Amino acid sequence: MARKKNNALEKDAPDSVIDAISKFLSSPPRGTPSEILEAFTAPGASDYLPPKLFLEAVEQAPVAISIADPNARILYVNRAFEDLSGYQRNEVIGKNESILSSKSTPKEVYRDLWETISSKMVWTGALVNHRKGRKEYVAELTIAPVFNHAGDVSYYLGMHRDITVMHKLERQLKFQKQLTEATLDAAPMVVAIIGSDGKVLLDNHAYKALLGDFRGVEPSELFLKAIEQQLDFKLSEVCSKGNGFNNVDVRLDPPGSTSPRWFSCSGVHMDELDAAAANFFSSQQQSRCCLLLLANEITSSRNQVLEARLNMIRANMVEQQMVQTMREAISASIFKLQGPLNIVRAALAIPDMGDVQMLRNALQEALVSGNEAMQELNDSLPTTKVEERVVVNINEILYEVIRLATDRLLGSGIVVDWQPEEVMPSINGRANQLRSLFKFLIDNAIDAINESTNDYREIRLKTLFDEHELIAEIIDNGPGISSSKRLKVFEPFYSGWQHSRGHSGMGLTMSQEIVMDHYGSIMVDEEHVGGCRIIVRLPVSHTGTE
Ligand code: FAD
């Protein structure tokens, strides 16, 4: 029967034990180890606590204690041992400690136990014991060797306690952990628990797969960066304010892939109880703040929306292109007409034209009708609507343009190496204008490659963010632009193509106008070799409010 923890020896027990010791000391049996006699009779022994107290302490200790000889033959057991094992001391004294063994402990555990204690070291471990009634329990056992004067092991002191309940709890905890992990792993969405220091404390299969897709870059960092940009959200604020977020669409660009991935993210504030010893008594208050991040991939539905948008953009661009072509043709006519009109104007300005009044009149008429023609041409220039500035993402715009150019790229056998900044901040800009800008530049890159005889044909598109500006690089491995033409290519109507293919030479001029309208810059990198590298810089700070 289980005894109360605070068990006291029965009233007459100490006296009977002490009496027994006194009796024993008065005529110790033959073969009694000298250490035992010394322990009670050594000079100075009385300076320490009396042996009776030691004995009582061991007897009353709430942990099962046994003392055995070097062959594990039991010499002494305390009350707690009797309670736990169900054996009375007279039933076990003289027997081997293995009387408690349930035989379900693996042999290796005993081998390790004996190797350790035979080497004069302390062994601690768990094994399965059985009580007198054969009922098994998990015992946490510590065996410490007790040495004689010569330093040899004289006895072994064994202390064990029943940890069956703890073992059950551990198993349950392990099962619950496995259950949680299996459930999380089976979930199709990305799940991660992120500590306030940004470290991932728990994740699932979908998260780990993403880690592979992003070549080892921690997806949690990318998610948080993208969410911070969109919501002005700070991980630390989740802890102080407890506010999470719901269904925030986030775009991530995996390195080396031309397809962006979209996720709908939600974040929930969670508290993890702090297991630090210092917080033992204050577990209610002490907790560690975490964010439960749930990210549902919505790339395919986004792609459908994008496809529909691309069709609209395509139609829009065809219209824009027509207007542009007309504008260019009329502008070119105005430009050309300007020349002869200037000559007529100059001729009329000559003071001494003799009496060729008829010629003067003819010239005057030519000038008037020329000016009228100019005016008509100017009036017939199709007007372009000033586009509103909206929030745009350069990665998205460039990606759309790549998609729009897919047929041309495939037809020309060109490989696109798309290297976007993983998380790109948005800017305020004119989306159609920026689309046109990158379309001009990519069309030029394709044309340039088509003029080269390279077997390997590649366009590399790179975007970067360096705190103040967004940088887009369009790199082709075509013939390149010589340093003498680096500036000239931006002049109106300049065309350096071997085959003009109807180019008016206005593409880079208009690209420059668009970039300047966004307070940015465009340049041909003069140091680039093996093709052409156009660098577009767009500042982030200009919100472009008008
Ligand atoms: P055993 O034949 O007794 O031992 C198995 C293996 O242990 C042997 O093959 C050998 O490698 C090694 N071994 C055994 N005796 C010795 C020795 N004297 N010197 C070197 N190696 C040896 N066991 C429990 O199951 N439960 C307990 O609560 C428990 N408490 C113990 C307390 C003390 C103080 C000591 C010293 C031992 C205790 N033991 C306990 C171990 C016990 O003595 C047995 O070794 C164990 O129970 C295995 O018993 P067995 O009959 O299966 O095999």
Task: Walk me through what this model shows.
Mean pLDDT is 85; it is low at 1-14. Helix content is 42%, strand content 22%. The longest helix is centred in the middle third of the chain and has 51 residues, at 299-349. The radius of gyration is 45 Å and the shape is rod-shaped. The chain has helices at residues 13-26, 34-41, 51-60, 79-85, 89-92, 107-118, 164-186, 205-213, 219-231, 235-241, 299-349, 357-380, 394-404, 406-411, 431-451, 507-517; strands at residues 64-68, 74-77, 123-130, 136-147, 153-162, 190-195, 200-203, 245-252, 261-273, 287-297, 390-392, 415-419, 427-429, 458-465, 469-476, 521-524, 532-539. The protein is α+β, with helices and mostly antiparallel strands and 546 residues long. The chain starts with 12 loop residues before the first helix and ends in a 7-residue tail after the last strand. The protein has a five-stranded antiparallel beta sheet with strand order 2-1-5-4-3, with helices on both faces. Strands 7-6-10-9-8 form a five-stranded antiparallel beta sheet. Helix 15 runs antiparallel to helix 16 (507-517). The protein is built from 16 helices and 17 strands. A hairpin with an 8-residue loop joins strand 8 (245-252) and strand 9 (261-273). Bound molecules: flavin-adenine dinucleotide. Flavin-adenine dinucleotide binds at residues 66, 68, 71-72, 96-98, 100-101, 105, 110-111, 114, 118, 127, 129, 139, 141, 143, 156, 158, 160.
